[in-house]
Amino acid sequence: MPLTVLFSIGFLYPIARLVIMSFGDAAADLEQYRRIFATPLYLGVLSRTISTAAIVTLLSLMFGYPVALAMSKARGRLALVIAAAVLVPLWTSVLVRSYAWIVLLQRSGLVNAFLVESGFIAAPLKLLYTDGAVILAMTHVLMPFMILPIANALRSISPDYALAARSLGAGPLATFLRVVLPLSLPGVFAGCVMCFILAIGFYITPALVGGPEAMTMATLIAQQTTVVLDWPFAAALSSVLLLVTLLFVLVFRRALSISKGINSVA
Fold first, then answer.
1. DSSP SS3 for 53
2. 30: how many CB neighbours lie within 10 A of its CB?
3. Cα 129 from Cα 101, distance rounded (Å)
């Protein structure tokens, strides 16, 4: 009972206040929500936020799965090196890592300097303050949240399954695709959920690396609360973002339950 009261005060009450604030002074006034869905600019920001989060999640999975696989199989000093390579960035401040990408991607940064001196380009490219810069920096920041659940799922798979598959004539690729990958799907889905939820509400990296041209819902909400001071509209934007996040969590949860059903049948 005390835990329920504490949960209600700590989580449910702020969300309820947020939703109530989005209606403004009049009860059940949907003007703020009409403003969001009737303005192409705000719908574009919402669409960019969802697409950016989806791309970052996909890239984190593509680059994070091989690292998680190596992390689960490595032993001794190599295991320590891989763990340090994953955990040290995770423990480093997001602000520091975002400023590091600014140093790398600016017109006089290391990337442009390398490309110009190597002869690949004649003049520095605009790498900073673009959607590509936001996706690159966010993928780097969020990849540990994809690697750790997958590595944990891979470690829980008994090596006897792979040995049994090999003894039945399966090659390394078939063993991975038909044994290891299906059994690691719970870790994959857990990593995807964490990366997507964190990406859809990310603020610091899009604000620093993306600038005004790559605005996301989080930066738009910050603008409405700190510059425009339109709190009801900011509350409506936050409520929409919360609803979208819950919707995708339900989709991921449904996909995970289907995956477990397929695995149990297999």
1. helix
2. 14
3. 11
pTM of the prediction? 0.86
Of residues 35, 9, 216, 53, the one with CA closest to residue 145: 53
185 and 167 Cβ atoms separated by less than 8 Å: no
Give CA–CA dist 73/156, Å, rounded: 11
CA dihedral 155, 157, 158, 159 (to 10 degrees): -80
| Cβ burial, residue 162 (10 Å; 0-12/13-18/19+) | middle
Q: What span, in angstroms and rounded, lies between the C-alpha atoms of 73 and 138?
A: 27
| Cβ-based neighbours of 240, under 8 Å, separated by 6 or more | 33, 36, 46, 217
Four-CA torsion 225, 137, 189, 72, nearest 10 degrees: -140
Q: Could you give the CA distance from residue 19 to residue 83 in angstroms, rounded to a whole number? A: 42
Tokens describing residue 238: 């936050």
Task: Please name the residues in contact with 30: beta carbons below 8 A apart, sequence gap of 6 or more.
Answer: 23
Alpha-carbon span 235 to 255, nearest angstrom: 30
Amino acid identity for residue 166 in this structure: R
Contact (Cβ atoms closer than 8 angstroms) between residue 197 and residue 191: no
Could you list the pLDDT tens digit for every one of the 266 residues in the chain?
Answer: 677 778 777 778 888 888 888 887 665 678 888 888 898 999 999 999 999 999 999 999 999 999 999 998 888 888 899 989 899 888 888 889 988 999 899 888 888 999 888 888 888 888 888 889 999 999 999 999 999 999 999 999 888 888 888 888 888 889 888 888 888 988 998 899 899 999 998 888 888 888 777 788 988 998 888 888 888 899 999 999 999 988 988 887 777 676 665 555 44
Distance (Å, rounded) from C-alpha 149 to C-alpha 188? 7
Report yes or no: 34 and 232 within 8 Å, Cβ to Cβ.
no
